[in-house]
Amino acid sequence: MTNADRQVPRRRVLPACHWGSGGGVASLTAMNRLTTSRGEFELARFPEDPRDQLRAWDAADEYLLRHLDGIDGEPVDLSGQVVVLGDRWGALVTALAGCRPTQISDSFLAQEATRANLRRNGAAEAAVHLLTSRDAPPERIDVLLVRVPKSLALLEDQLHRLAPHVHAGTVVVGAGMVTEIHTSTLRLFERILGPTKTSLAAKKARLIHCAPDPAIDRGVNPWPLTYALPDGIGAVSGRTVTSHAGVFCADRLDVGTRFFLTSLPDRIGPGRVVDLGCGNGVVGLAAALGGAEVTFVDESHQAVASARATFEANAGGRAEFVVADGMSGIPAGSVDVVLNNPPFHTHRAMSDDTAWRMFTGSRAALRRGGELWVVGNRHLGYHAKLRRLFGGCEVVASNPKFVVLRAVRR
Questions:
Q1: Start-to-end CA span in the chain (Å)
Q2: Do 161 and 37 fall into the same domain?
Q3: Do residues 242 and 199 share a domain?
Q4: CA 138, CA 130: separation in Å to the nearest integer?
């Protein structure tokens, strides 16, 4: 049996930052129980939905926690400043709350899940310092734990931002499923932080071990990127776009958005328009240049920062920039038009839950006669959902891959 396959006894007593569940609120159907040597933790994703059968943790989270407990050597000293980067639903910082870690996340949903999971397990939110991907990191980092993100660009940007704050003695451990850790992932750790190696796989998860070298020449952080939009896409033709790391299609205009832009009316406005799931803000910019008052909304801090930079470089006047779960922060009946290119992935899971929340939230936020415009892959069948919610929808444009739909709030 390899070290990677060994199990830590569940009732082992840990020093200093041992902390477990006790108190907390009643469990919900969608919760899962993570059992560790530090205790058992009731966890849920956010927003909580009894129909959601996806866990709020995975084998990579388990493997990392077991490593910290010493399954392959001595336990890791967690008495210093512990930083957790990219904790997906707060499982890691909830289990480590007794160490008072700092969580850095780009995701509004992940941090709301963290807050809820801390409360559920009897820990005050103050037990964890919550930072976004746009905030300055702690001055000194003694232990850096990294959940490898789907976006290699986001990992590159965040490692560059954190590198000046680690030291030669910092313990750096990454974690991810085997399918998430590639040669390019390891090269990033090695180029930006220092010598890197991987662990054996356990339950299809793997760890990354990195020994920081403060003298390494890591080069300049290439993010954010800027590029000029192509011609033939209306008012935004030739405009400059800014994309921070982690934004979808950061270095070019994706084909779905291009099709959307060519299908929208030349002028949307005047009126209040929401660019929902704004990414780098190109669609909302088109509306703003047509005279609309635009609110840019995304659950990614990097995306909203990109939309702000894109707007400020190309448009005068005012706009709002909101990091939120869909339309949750928009007052009911206050919007004339919602423009939406919904995602259909959440980390590794493919789901239409996010699109459904976006559509239902849009309906609530629209005034009577207000319009929801949606672009999506044809095979996703968004027309059925829109007809169910709005009582009908119109196909504005379609090609072999994409469809643009329009639904009116009656």
A1: 64
A2: yes
A3: no
A4: 11
236 and 365 together in one domain: yes
User: For the chain, what is the domain count?
Assistant: 2
Query: Are residues 18 and 116 both part of a single domain?
Result: yes
- The 10s digit of each residue's pLDDT in 55-89 is 999 999 999 999 999 988 899 999 999 999 999 99
| Cβ atoms of residues 46 and 125 within 8 Å | no
Strand order across the beta sheet in which 205-210 lies: 129-132, 102-105, 82-85, 141-147, 166-177, 205-210, 196-198
What is the domain-level CATH number for residue 281?
3.40.50.150
Q: Any idea which residue has 């939309």 for tokens?
A: 307
Antiparallel, parallel or unpaired: β 225-228 and 366-377: unpaired
Domain that holds residue 306: 225-408
What six digits make up the tokens of 169?
Answer: 């003695």
Entry pTM: 0.91
Cα distance between residue 298 and residue 277, in whole Å: 5
**224: preceding bond cis by omega (within 30 degrees):** yes
